[in-house]
Amino acid sequence: MGVVTLPLEIVRDTTQKSAEQARLWCRQLEEGNILLFPQTPVALENAEDAQFLLGLEQSRSVLHKNLAYQVATDRIVGANLCSANSAAHARLRAILRGYSQRVTEFLVGFLVPYQARWQVDYTSFRPIEEQGRNLPLRKRNDLLHMDAFPTRPTQGARILRFFQNIHPTRPREWIVGEPFRALAPQFIPASIAPPRAESVQIRKMRKTVCRAGVGRAIPALQRSPYDRFMLRFHNFLKENSGYQSQGARAAISFPPGSSWMIYTDTVPHAVLSGQYALEQTFLVAPQAMVAPEHAPLSVLESIVGQRLV
Ligand SMILES: [Fe+2]
Fold first, then answer.
1. Which tens digit of pLDDT belongs to each residue from 49-59?
2. Which of 103, 170, 246, 250 is the most buried (most CB within 10 A)?
3. In a domain, 2, yes or no
């Protein structure tokens, strides 16, 4: 099994706001580094909120899996809240809404070169112990993968995620692999073949639904060749037992109270253990990149020699 140099940059002082430093942080992220904040710069508003979140998993009546807050609709999605009482639901929504706002405010000041050219995506709370989860292979978090959203194609926007370990005592254990720019060429031609052209059937369907004005509701029809590739590559890596057992990797332990940030469409990652994490996703515009040559879209387009979005 190969070992990669730990792609970790530790940020102890978030008050250094020179233009050069902010640009360097953006570059480090885009090159496939993880920025680790040993003490999170975005704490929960108060200790009672943390206690509330830590109590949710124990009372299984409130939720059955990861919870996601959608800022665009101000709704909690992706969890079974049928049996939750409305006061608990409202409090949960308020906590995640506030967290999303504070993370966004922090990053506006921290990643200045991006000028907030992003879409604020889901905020999630992950209360389930990751070790030993019984999930279908393609949904497993403990296999190395790069993120690609089946229902939310990004059209080349980058997936930036900000995490926080709110477990009071236990770390969150990850492994990470070589970033996309180094990894992708290793799999030619098995997975890097130019994406298949859209089938005649799909083209006809697209025309029909566009005329009917419902195309935006059918994610498969909005997927660019880039999105289709990234989804295939996500599945390819998880299903590749050779890569999972022998691929180069490094282990990282995120202590309680820490935060970290990573482009999860660039760095293969897997969560081996840990419980209770908060996470905020941003879809960053490709035009905002300070090192665009590291973007998976640029890497792929240079390999296949054609536009993919
Ligand atoms: Fe992931």
1. 999 999 886 55
2. 103
3. no
